[in-house]
Amino acid sequence: xxxxxxxxxxxxxxxxxxxxxxxxxxxxxxxxxxxxxxxxxxxxxxxxxxxxxxxxxxxxxxxxxxxxxxxxxxxxxxxxxxxxxxxxxxxxxxxxxxxxxxxxxxxxxxxxxxxxx
Length: 117
Fold this sequence. Notes:
Elements: H1 2-10, H2 14-36, H3 38-55, H4 58-73, H5 81-101, H6 104-113
Helix pairs in contact: 1-2, 2-3, 3-4, 4-5, 5-6
């Protein structure tokens, strides 16, 4: 279901992607439990966070990726690629949130720092 959600997201079918990722998360928690296989859950949470970002739901995106990062930090070294990716995505979401609340001049500065035209 996680992969199906990613396919739907890639096809810009965001409502269906949301349903598929939520179903994946529910199944993982039910079948695997949160303690036995947290990395599967962390991956799905991260994917949900990226979907929330695309939907413009930045506060939800930040919360999902923060949860994924916290789970991954219990299992991986600080320089592991999964942790670095989560930190990068979290920083991007926080910058987007700041630009939404910023004046037009501040928003342009944030975009130029991220290489956004």
